[in-house]
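Review this fold:
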Amino acid sequence: MVGQTTLSVKVADEVWIATALLHREQPDRKDFTVKEILARARAENLTGELRPGVSVHAFQHCVANLDPNSAQYRMLYATGKSTRRLYREGDETHPKRKGKITPVAEDIPVQYRYLLDWYRNEFATPIQDNWLRGIFEMIGAGKEDFAGVDADEYVRQLREGWE
């Protein structure tokens, strides 16, 4: 594709598009190396050149289960040190990450918007037999009840008189 002149694509969105295209083209693969994601972004040529930020976004800024370093996106999931896949609801997420999961449709070129429907309807659909679903739904439950309580002191009090 020739670089966009009327639409300035965000670097994070460029990373998401490249990763989504890889998943669509190779549905049997569970993840991709960051090098493969960068090569796919380079091949799409969304902005006329591969911007330096694409690499850092694929390695860090877009990765839901890594400590955020400025950006808080949850677009990718690290399956290994240098391997990534698109993020799915229910994936382990760093508690400080609250950012977007997919691009906003109006922020990406029209020819890639079908990827958003594919993602929602096919890739990111919840797994119905996920036996851990209830545990994930309990995240944060009771945090108000234990706010300001020292965990070690609480356990010590529970154990008093056990002997």
Q: What stands out?
A: The chain is about 35% helix and 5% strand. The beta strands are 32-33, 76-78, 83-86. Residues 1-6 have pLDDT under 50 and may be disordered.
